[in-house]
Amino acid sequence: xxxxxxxxxxxxxxxxxxxxxxxxxxxxxxxxxxxxxxxxxxxxxxxxxxxxxxxxxxxxxxxxxxxxxxxxxxxxxxxxxxx
Length: 83
Known about the structure:
Helix content: 40-55%
Structural class: mainly alpha
Radius of gyration: 13 Å
Low-confidence stretches: 66-80
Oligomer: single chain
Largest sheet: 2 strands, antiparallel
Shape: globular
Number of strands: 2
């Protein structure tokens, strides 16, 4: 599996999570799924609460909604073709 990024990646990761799940379990699932650093940081920034469904997690995670594959500028610059 490739690196999971942004909300689209988070949605794929959450499909494999048994709820309720706490922040630590969600971070572990993202690590297992090869989540990118922005996604992992966003999950770690969530409150240490139990989440009872994927939509609760999606609302709590600070990732841009309009950029499903968004990730950090440093990661994007690494993807740019070298001249």
